[in-house]
Amino acid sequence: MIHNIARDVDAFTSNAFLVSPAARGDHGADGRTVLVDTGANFDAVSHLQGDVDHLDAVVITHTHPDHVGNVDAIRDRFDVETWGFDASHPAVDNRIDDGDVVRIGTDAFRALHTPGHAVDHLCLYDPDSGVLFAGDLVFAGGSFGRTDLPGGDGRTLVESIERVVEAVDETLQVLHTGHGPSVLDDPFGALEQSLQAARARA
Known about the structure:
The structure is a single chain. This protein is an alpha/beta fold. Helix content is 23%, strand content 21%. It has five helices and eleven strands; from the N terminus they run E-E-E-H-E-H-H-E-E-E-E-E-E-H-E-H. The protein has helices at residues 44-49, 65-68, 71-78, 154-167, 187-201; strands spanning 2-4, 17-19, 34-36, 57-59, 82-84, 94-95, 101-104, 107-113, 122-126, 131-135, 174-177. The strands form two sheets. It has a six-stranded mixed β-sheet, with no helix packed on it. The chain has a five-stranded mixed β-sheet with strand order 7-8-9-10-11. A hairpin with an 8-residue loop joins strand 8 and strand 9. Helix 4 (154-167) packs antiparallel against helix 5 (187-201).
């Protein structure tokens, strides 16, 4: 079960996806309860407590403030460690390297280092479930991550989107993005659309 705890938040925040492997309040045997990004500028702890009483890990797609603003509050309440590409950042306790397998829920997601929007950006893809967490690499409607922030680069972003397109295929079932709605209708086509738009802009 994947639930965006920031879905109805009226504040500047990223999406924050709670992945629960089993029934509410049940954890351990059936998988890992993981939060993908924490969001910012809202009370994420109260949103989480409505769904779970335990977190096994927090996985960070990248360390822009809107994605990690709630890290400290979530660490304190759930006594949980965070994982991301840049372990030198205060929001990241443990490093995920390119190609590492990360257990989220009951599935094994492969980490893809995808810079361009941010130097530490990761996408997470599980071919068995057909789920991709894309962070701010691409969005619904053929849009893509901005490249005018420190560490951003348009050509690098295109190369990262190309890498993701090569890693997935038409069996992709859902594309969870860092902002806006998830893509359920032809997510692979949406990826290709974003790639074309990014190439035109680079």
